[in-house]
Amino acid sequence: MRNKERNNLLMQIANDALIKSKNNKNSLFKSGTNDIVSSYNGQISGFSVSIAITGLLPTLAMYYQDGKNAVCLRNILDVIGLMLPELDASTYNGITCSKSLFEFAINSKGEKQEKLKRDIIDCAIALKQIVRTYQLV
User: Fold this and answer.
1) Per-residue model confidence (pLDDT) at position 1
2) Are 42 and 34 in contact (CB under 8 A)?
3) To 10 degrees, the CA torsion angle through 55, 59, 60, 63?
Protein backbone atom coordinates (compact mmCIF):
# COMPACT_ATOMS: atom_id res chain seq x y z
CA MET A 1 0.00 0.00 0.00
CA ARG A 2 1.37 3.40 -0.96
CA ASN A 3 2.02 6.01 1.71
CA LYS A 4 -0.89 8.23 0.69
CA GLU A 5 -3.33 5.32 0.80
CA ARG A 6 -1.89 4.11 4.10
CA ASN A 7 -2.15 7.59 5.63
CA ASN A 8 -5.77 7.92 4.53
CA LEU A 9 -6.57 4.49 5.95
CA LEU A 10 -4.82 5.31 9.23
CA MET A 11 -6.73 8.57 9.59
CA GLN A 12 -10.04 6.75 9.07
CA ILE A 13 -9.01 4.10 11.60
CA ALA A 14 -7.95 6.82 14.06
CA ASN A 15 -11.27 8.62 13.77
CA ASP A 16 -13.23 5.37 14.14
CA ALA A 17 -11.19 4.37 17.22
CA LEU A 18 -11.60 7.81 18.75
CA ILE A 19 -15.37 7.69 18.29
CA LYS A 20 -15.49 4.10 19.56
CA SER A 21 -13.63 5.13 22.71
CA LYS A 22 -15.91 8.10 23.35
CA ASN A 23 -18.32 6.15 25.55
CA ASN A 24 -15.55 4.53 27.55
CA LYS A 25 -14.23 6.01 30.74
CA ASN A 26 -10.86 5.98 28.96
CA SER A 27 -11.80 8.66 26.47
CA LEU A 28 -9.92 11.66 25.15
CA PHE A 29 -13.21 13.55 25.03
CA LYS A 30 -14.33 15.93 27.73
CA SER A 31 -17.17 14.18 29.53
CA GLY A 32 -20.54 14.63 27.84
CA THR A 33 -19.20 16.62 24.89
CA ASN A 34 -17.78 16.19 21.40
CA ASP A 35 -14.70 18.18 22.41
CA ILE A 36 -11.29 16.72 23.15
CA VAL A 37 -9.35 17.80 26.22
CA SER A 38 -6.66 20.08 24.79
CA SER A 39 -3.86 18.57 26.88
CA TYR A 40 -4.11 15.39 24.82
CA ASN A 41 -3.00 17.27 21.71
CA GLY A 42 0.49 17.85 23.08
CA GLN A 43 0.73 14.44 24.74
CA ILE A 44 -0.13 12.67 21.48
CA SER A 45 2.35 14.86 19.58
CA GLY A 46 5.10 13.94 22.02
CA PHE A 47 4.32 10.23 21.92
CA SER A 48 6.07 9.44 18.61
CA VAL A 49 9.03 11.63 19.52
CA SER A 50 9.37 9.84 22.84
CA ILE A 51 9.41 6.46 21.08
CA ALA A 52 12.13 7.71 18.72
CA ILE A 53 14.27 9.08 21.57
CA THR A 54 13.76 6.62 24.43
CA GLY A 55 12.44 3.55 22.64
CA LEU A 56 9.15 1.69 22.43
CA LEU A 57 8.99 -0.08 25.78
CA PRO A 58 10.11 2.86 27.96
CA THR A 59 7.58 5.14 26.25
CA LEU A 60 4.76 2.61 26.59
CA ALA A 61 5.67 2.14 30.26
CA MET A 62 5.61 5.89 30.86
CA TYR A 63 2.25 6.34 29.12
CA TYR A 64 0.83 3.22 30.76
CA GLN A 65 1.49 4.60 34.24
CA ASP A 66 -1.47 6.56 35.47
CA GLY A 67 0.73 9.42 36.57
CA LYS A 68 0.11 12.86 37.91
CA ASN A 69 -0.51 14.53 34.55
CA ALA A 70 -3.48 16.72 33.81
CA VAL A 71 -4.74 13.94 31.55
CA CYS A 72 -4.53 10.17 31.77
CA LEU A 73 -1.87 9.17 29.26
CA ARG A 74 -3.10 5.59 29.31
CA ASN A 75 -6.16 6.77 27.37
CA ILE A 76 -3.90 7.46 24.38
CA LEU A 77 -2.68 3.88 24.49
CA ASP A 78 -6.28 2.67 24.70
CA VAL A 79 -7.13 4.44 21.44
CA ILE A 80 -3.98 3.13 19.74
CA GLY A 81 -4.88 -0.32 21.07
CA LEU A 82 -8.18 -0.03 19.19
CA MET A 83 -6.41 1.11 16.03
CA LEU A 84 -3.79 -1.63 15.65
CA PRO A 85 -6.14 -4.59 15.01
CA GLU A 86 -7.94 -2.50 12.38
CA LEU A 87 -4.60 -1.83 10.70
CA ASP A 88 -3.40 -5.46 10.74
CA ALA A 89 -5.85 -7.96 12.23
CA SER A 90 -3.62 -11.00 11.72
CA THR A 91 -0.68 -9.49 13.62
CA TYR A 92 -2.54 -7.56 16.32
CA ASN A 93 -5.48 -9.85 17.03
CA GLY A 94 -6.24 -9.68 20.73
CA ILE A 95 -5.11 -6.10 21.31
CA THR A 96 -8.11 -4.18 22.60
CA CYS A 97 -6.76 -1.71 25.15
CA SER A 98 -3.64 -0.29 26.77
CA LYS A 99 -3.07 -3.41 28.89
CA SER A 100 -3.14 -5.86 25.99
CA LEU A 101 -1.02 -3.46 23.89
CA PHE A 102 1.60 -3.20 26.63
CA GLU A 103 1.65 -6.99 27.14
CA PHE A 104 1.97 -7.56 23.38
CA ALA A 105 4.91 -5.13 23.21
CA ILE A 106 6.70 -6.74 26.15
CA ASN A 107 6.39 -10.17 24.56
CA SER A 108 7.47 -9.01 21.09
CA LYS A 109 11.07 -9.42 20.02
CA GLY A 110 13.17 -8.53 17.00
CA GLU A 111 11.32 -7.84 13.75
CA LYS A 112 7.94 -8.24 15.42
CA GLN A 113 8.76 -5.45 17.87
CA GLU A 114 10.16 -3.25 15.09
CA LYS A 115 6.94 -3.68 13.09
CA LEU A 116 4.93 -2.83 16.21
CA LYS A 117 7.07 0.26 16.77
CA ARG A 118 6.54 1.49 13.18
CA ASP A 119 2.81 0.79 13.32
CA ILE A 120 2.38 2.52 16.69
CA ILE A 121 4.23 5.59 15.43
CA ASP A 122 2.05 5.64 12.30
CA CYS A 123 -1.09 5.27 14.42
CA ALA A 124 0.02 8.06 16.75
CA ILE A 125 0.69 10.41 13.83
CA ALA A 126 -2.75 9.69 12.35
CA LEU A 127 -4.36 10.15 15.76
CA LYS A 128 -2.57 13.49 16.15
CA GLN A 129 -3.93 14.63 12.80
CA ILE A 130 -7.49 13.53 13.62
CA VAL A 131 -7.49 15.03 17.11
CA ARG A 132 -6.73 18.41 15.58
CA THR A 133 -9.95 18.23 13.55
CA TYR A 134 -11.97 18.25 16.78
CA GLN A 135 -12.63 21.21 19.05
CA LEU A 136 -9.99 21.27 21.78
CA VAL A 137 -11.06 22.57 25.18
Assistant:
1) 65
2) no
3) -170
